Amino acid sequence: MPTVAVDVMGGAHGPEAAVQGVAAVSLQSDIDCLLVGDEARIQKILESTAYNPERIAILHAAEAIGASEEPRSAVRYKRKASLFVALREVAAGRCAAVVSAGNAAAALGASRRELTLLPGVRTAAMASVYPRAAEDAGQDPLALALDVGATVRCTADELVHFAVMGSTYARVISRVAEPRVALLNMGRDPLQGDAVLSAAHRRLRDRRGLNFVGNIEGHELTSGRADVVVCEGLLGNIVFKLLESVATMAVDRTAAATPRSWRRRAGMAIMAAGSDGLRALADSSSYGGAPLLGFEQVVIQVHDGSQVHDGSQAQGGSQAQAIGNAVKVAAKAARDGLIPALKAALADD
Amino acid sequence: MPTVAVDVMGGAHGPEAAVQGVAAVSLQSDIDCLLVGDEARIQKILESTAYNPERIAILHAAEAIGASEEPRSAVRYKRKASLFVALREVAAGRCAAVVSAGNAAAALGASRRELTLLPGVRTAAMASVYPRAAEDAGQDPLALALDVGATVRCTADELVHFAVMGSTYARVISRVAEPRVALLNMGRDPLQGDAVLSAAHRRLRDRRGLNFVGNIEGHELTSGRADVVVCEGLLGNIVFKLLESVATMAVDRTAAATPRSWRRRAGMAIMAAGSDGLRALADSSSYGGAPLLGFEQVVIQVHDGSQVHDGSQAQGGSQAQAIGNAVKVAAKAARDGLIPALKAALADD
Question: How far is CA B118 from CA A34, A223, B108, B122, B344, in A?
């Protein structure tokens, strides 16, 4: 099994959650992990945690980039940070994938410095995984959206690359045979939007190996129409931050408004039956992270929720589980050949 | 009191809701209305409805533009449609405002043909009114967003005009003394986004008479940070369609998941306490419509919900009430001098 390098120092609440998440994975699977960070602190956490020592190694890093640190200067000056050390392990081929649970903008900036773009790709994309209604039995309950903030505006070329990469990721990781790819736009008409969007629509429709289902509108995002949603970073960033916050608000308010006695009596049936999709949307622990796509290496970013939530939700067990899931996704991507599949799909022009 | 021209033919369910909405207003207020549409049908609906005949007149129109009709060709070929007839009444100064409850794209297209842009304004904006958490006591529970689909991409100039017009509208209609204006962007940093957004940020900050509070991110839209949210049409269209659909989903699911017996016992306390904001968001009848801003005339568009909802929610009493509210808003805008206020604010460069 491939080794996954995990930057354990980036989270908003220190290395505890990341180390515990990896420790749990070491007992459940044959995935080898390299914990990158403050060796003494990692050692101390491991001492009070059940784990399989055959599956876990530690690589010391002298610095760490904080979750709320200004990403540009952190990337510029903190080259000894655990994030950089982990990325260099992957760039040098000593590890097969990296998992980052910290500052997403720093992870992107550091990846741009340390990693190589795939042939033909001009810019990397940050993906977001989000749950939506499944239309068919067997359809994955999660959809992938990209880009959600690595870019601002995009060319039609870049949108097509995002579509090809997202579709390939969904095929490899979710095992969807022909992922439905849609272009986020203000109407279904192929000529809707500006020249970039209509050119992207035409090229996506004509692209071999892509199951393009057309434009998708804002109110259709939570439907099962698309497995992969393609958009420029400005749009994706705003839309998916909004989607997450509204879902969190709905779940929190419903819980807060239900008297405790009822909740006990009802066995939380309201929540279970009524808000499954919304709950999943608000619960980043079930995601397993989302990829940075466009590099020759596998990078999985765990959403720490600190931008949207008040932080408390992402703490402890939930965040540890999210990191464990991300490690499994990273190992799967490495084992099942995500990068060769991306290269083949991008070359198939 | 000024006369409001109401296009009663545009709704997805015929003229009933619009005529009944206006009939109710005629009994509650001293607003004069001109019902524009098929005279015989309007007459027939009025016969079985309570109304004040001193407040209501009818203007016959031979054609109608359907709610789901392709807007471009409808605007091109149906010049005798009730929408055009109503707009010409306002353009000629015989009415003080127009209310449209039909096809929003057709209303925009027809307004562009029949009405005049305000001095200095290069393009009109379509606004959307949406509820969000109020931060201060006394803060209006509704915020205004524009543009939500009249444009695709915008220049910094156009975004500044949207801000000035939205702020003026909030001041006149909501009586907010200094509406908080924010720019929708992917981060709070003034340099975030592309050159257009950072230029718009700088110019909004420096603009006299504008209470600019900076950039607003996707997850902050439902907070009370801004009374007026400014964005290009592509972004606004997708974001506000999504916001509405997620809110509808949350409200519908919570209602569906709550057994009827509980709901009765609880007097709908869950809904009332927990999902007020979401419920309001999903209930277009409480809005009173949103303005098309940029013309020398007042145009209020009622959201018929047909794009997002299944149609059933927008029927009957709810839609009639929405149209009644829109008529009141239109009359208020005319009476309180929205257009002179817009001219003054735009000139204050």
Answer: 64, 40, 15, 8, 11
Degrees, nearest 5: CA angle A88-A93-A94: 80
Helix locations, chain B, DSSP H: 16-28, 39-47, 71-77, 82-91, 104-114, 156-173, 195-206, 233-257, 260-266, 269-274, 276-282, 316-335, 338-347
Q: Which among A152, A242, A257 has the least Cβ separation from residue B239?
A: A242
Among B194, B219, B221, select the one facing A307 at the smallest CB separation: B219
Element (H, E) at B184: strand B180-184
> Strands (DSSP E) along chain A, which ranges?
3-7, 32-37, 56-60, 97-100, 125-131, 142-146, 180-184, 211-216, 228-230, 290-293, 298-301
B43-65: per-residue pLDDT in tens? Answer: 999 999 999 999 999 999 999 99
pTM of the prediction? 0.88
3 state SS of A298:
strand
Residues in B closer than 8 angstroms to A275, CB to CB, are 250, 253-254, 257
**pLDDT tens-digit series, residues A53-64:** 999 999 999 999
The whole-angstrom separation of Cα A141 and Cα B344 is: 52
User: Do the Cβ atoms of A219 and B307 come within 8 Å?
Assistant: yes
- Please name the residues in contact with B106: beta carbons below 8 A apart, sequence gap of 6 or more: B10, B65, B69, B71, B74, B75, B83
ipTM value, please give it: 0.86
Query: For tokens 């949406």, what's the residue?
Result: B130
Instruction: Please tell me the total number of residues recorded for chain B in this structure.
Output: 349
